Amino acid sequence: MPIKELKIDLTPHLRKVKLKARRDVLNRVLEGNWSTIFKGQGLEFAGYRAYSYDDDASKIDWGASLRAHEILVRELEEYRNFNVFFLVDVSNSMLFSSTGKLKAEYAAEMTFSLCYAIMQTGDAIGLGLFTDKLITKIAPSLGKGIYYRIIRELVNPKNYGGNFDFTKALQYVSTFLKERSLIIIISDFIGLKQGWHRYLNILAGRYDLIGIMVRDPRDSVMPRRAGQYLVENPYSSEKLYIDSHQYKKIYAAETRKEEEFIKRSFEKAKLGFVSLRTDQEFQEPILNYFRKRLTLVR
Fold first, then answer.
1. Cα–Cα distance between 30 and 35 in angstroms, integer?
2. What is the Rg, in whole angstroms, of the alpha carbon atoms belonging to the chain?
3. Are 123 and 82 a contacting pair, CB within 8 Å?
4. By C-alpha distance, which of 187, 257, 192 is closest to 220?
5. Which pLDDT score, from 0 to 100, does residue 233 have?
6. Which listed residue, of 31, 44, 251, 266, carries a Cα 20 to 30 Å from 222's Cα?
7. Parallel, antiparallel, or unpaired for β 83-89 and 124-130?
8. What residues contact residue 37 under an 8 Å CB cut-off, 6+ apart?
9. Contact at 8 Å (CB) between 44 and 77?
């Protein structure tokens, strides 16, 4: 498997005009629309008060009224704080590149940009890096301190590499992450175990989720030049010589079918999904998703 050296250093990127422009554009789009897109009419229980004649009768809590021997209505208030948790795949398959950038580097830069933009909206951000276990867990919190903690974890090469178990990551996140949270999952979704989408459906009942699939061009199509190539399983290190001329069409068809199934699994659970490739900019597809979601909630 062609793996180039892992060099995730976001510190210089903070001063790069190109990445700063991406970050600022995301910030402008989200700053005015974030509450509408994701918080919507999110309400939480604030307490009871005595019923008055101008109240909507549908707000009466008859159970509480019977216990208190007076008519009570439930008071709700719109919640202000929102938790955004980035669940980022750092397993072996994310250390692949047929272009100038590893999938892991691409994912880290995107996470960095989104974290900054969301932080400006006043909501809490957190991070989980996972393989077949949760490598890093930073609970959602507010302030620049959490932002710089996230950057330190993203650039630490010791956090990268390992096997892949998506269902374990989902199970673990559900044990500590509060409801009223948005989980942004960034992965190539290669190596999914059978039945993984059932866990996705379970989490969909508690959280808002967005899946962002990051794939290298070679994950979908074999090289144009026909010939024999040595391929390697990123998790078992098993190697195999194949003739690309013989398997090119089969490979493209199977990967296309797999990608469609992943997308349908998210959409069937009424969750967001964005598909990206490392030879393309991530900014526009992400913004298109947010704009589309904004039109649906209006």
1. 9
2. 22
3. yes
4. 257
5. 80
6. 266
7. parallel
8. 30, 290, 293, 294, 297
9. yes
Q: Tell me how many degrees the CA angle 155-159-164 measures, rounded to the nearest 5.
A: 130
Which residue ranges form the domains of the chain, and what is each CATH number?
Answer: 10-39+80-297 (3.40.50.410), 43-78 (no CATH)
**Residue bearing tokens 């900019």:** 281
Contacts of 231 (CB under 8 A, 6+ apart): 1, 239, 240, 241, 242
The residue-averaged pLDDT of 144-159 equals 92
- Tell me which H or E stretch contains 129: strand 124-130
Query: Do residues 106 and 8 lie in contact, with contact meaning Cβ atoms separated by under 8 Å?
Result: no
Return the higher-pLDDT residue of 45 and 273.
Answer: 273
Query: DSSP letter at 185?
Result: E
Q: What is the pLDDT of residues 99-120, one digit of tens each?
A: 888 999 999 989 988 888 888 8
pTM attached to this predicted model: 0.79
- Find out whether 159 and 129 touch, Cβ atoms under 8 Å: yes
Q: Using an 8 Å Cβ cutoff, are 103 and 143 in contact?
A: no
Q: Give the per-residue SS3 of 247-292.
A: HHHHHHHHHHHHHHHHHHHHHHCCCEEEEEECCCCCHHHHHHHHHH
Query: What sign has the CA pseudo-torsion 206, 207, 208, 214?
Result: negative
